[in-house]
Amino acid sequence: MPCLNLSTNVSLDGIDTSSILSEATKSVAKIIGKPEAYVMIVLKGSVPMSFGGTEQPTAYGELVSIGGLNPDVNKKLSAAIATILETKLSVPKSRFFLKFYDTKASYQNTSHCP
């Protein structure tokens, strides 16, 4: 199950978070090649954070997936999520960082979000 955990210092008050969750789900599923039914998105707003020494709008994400990740996929995912954050939350693409975790399936390793 791919899980995208997004945190931003932007307030989500008055923001249509459903559209962000929906677009992120569709993008992750399509780019990784997994069914939308297995994709989880976690979105946290108003998280105290700075990037480059300023508290201007910024975001950090972690994407965990059992397989499906590689440098080309990661680049496409970064671009797609950055576009969503820029259009929906006014977070510039240059102020977004996404970390990838490609885990291996096992009975002891669950694919839940951290």
TrEMBL record:
GO terms for molecular function: phenylpyruvate tautomerase activity. GO terms for cellular component: extracellular space. It comes from the Eukaryota. InterPro entries: Macrophage_inhib_fac, Tautomerase/MIF_sf. Pfam families: MIF. Belongs to the MIF family. This is Macrophage migration inhibitory factor homolog. It comes from Tetracentron sinense (Spur-leaf).
